[in-house]
Amino acid sequence: MRHLKAFQIFHTAATSKNFTEAATKLCLTHGAISKQIKVLEDYVGKPLFVRHGRHVSLTSDGETLAHYTQDAFSTLQVGIDKVIMSSHTAIDVSCEPTLTMRWLMPRLVNFQDQHPDIDVRLSTAGGSVNLQRAGFSLAIRRDDFALDQDYDKVHLVEEWVGPVCSPEYWQTICPNEANENTSLHTAALRLLHTHTRATAWQTWATDAKQTVLLDGQHRHFDHFYFCLQAAIDGLGIAIGSYPLVKDDLARGALIAPFGFISSHHDYVVYKERHTDDSQHTAFISWLQQQLSQMIPTDNIN
């Protein structure tokens, strides 16, 4: 690209909004900054800055260009970081927060025992992701959203969901038959909702033909993790994703009085197309093996 140096100087000046400050950052003179900005303005045929004494501000065209130089230099930095880290045996993984905390982290030591030469670095995030821009190798997600980027989508496991609560809470709303729902006091139910899965109860109740449960009381939480913790603490009954509650079911901290049904979604891994990195392959294979155990035996079809 022509005038790449001028674009770098423009980007720094646009961020600083002061040619003197930009000159200091780039170890150039004020005159050199002004000259390169003039070169770029002649190249695009439009003024990019308005001068106000020692300070400058971007014109509307300058703001447009600055938006794209920000993207360009950010992407370039990601590339530089990848080159620097190419000799390191590390995988940068983005994973949904609740799945990270309640399922992946407790099991990750197993992968590290099998592959001591591979370092898995976790970051928590949900929804759409730009792997290159964010600097991630892989993203583990529940496939309940549209993805803008064209990535390979690797299936991990079908998701099963169902209402979960503490045994003590279930006794309070179904006192006569603790493990059945025939004497359930529907009006006494407190349904726990999360804003991140706002339709979870409605979808489950419709699919399981249990819409009468929606007549209970309702309490909302900002995050799925808080919702499940509230269920463990006996504050109500929540819709649980099986991988996220399996350990608590095994410990007896939670029960699933209605069993589990398919959510019609899967847990998946997104990765760049046509990449066959051996470290990524090893980690994805391990995820698939571990998650293959995350299908309930008492599901309702």
Summary of the model, kept short:
This protein has helices at residues 4-16, 19-26, 30-44, 60-85, 97-114, 131-134, 167-173, 200-207, 224-232, 242-251, 278-291; strands at residues 49-52, 55-58, 90-95, 119-124, 138-142, 152-164, 190-194, 217-221, 237-241, 261-271. The protein is an alpha/beta fold and 301 residues long.
Set down the secondary structure blueprint.
Layout: H1 4-16, H2 19-26, H3 30-44, E1 49-52, E2 55-58, H4 60-85, E3 90-95, H5 97-114, E4 119-124, H6 131-134, E5 138-142, E6 152-164, H7 167-173, E7 190-194, H8 200-207, E8 217-221, H9 224-232, E9 237-241, H10 242-251, E10 261-271, H11 278-291
Parallel strand pairs: 3-4, 3-5, 7-8, 7-9
Antiparallel strand pairs: 1-2, 5-10, 6-9, 6-10
Helix pairs in contact: 1-2, 1-3, 1-4, 2-3, 5-10
Can you put this structure into words, describing what you see?
The structure is a single chain. By secondary structure, this protein is α/β, with parallel strands linked by helices. Helix content is 44%, strand content 21%. It is built from eleven helices and ten strands. The strands form two sheets. The protein has an eight-stranded mixed beta sheet with strand order 4-3-5-10-6-9-7-8, sandwiched between helices. Strand 3 (90-95), helix 5 and strand 4 (119-124) form a beta-alpha-beta unit. Helix 2 (19-26) crosses helix 3. It is elongated and about 85 Å long. The mean pLDDT is 88.
Let me know the CATH homologous superfamily of the largest domain: Periplasmic binding protein-like II
The neighbouring-strand order within the major sheet is 4-3-5-10-6-9-7-8
Unreliable stretches covering 5 or more consecutive residues: none
| Straight-line N-to-C gap | 59 Å
Shape: elongated
CATH architectural group of the largest domain: 3-Layer(aba) Sandwich
Oligomer: single chain
Pfam family, one: HTH_1
GO biological process, one term: DNA-templated transcription
Family: Belongs to the LysR transcriptional regulatory family.
Organism: Photobacterium frigidiphilum
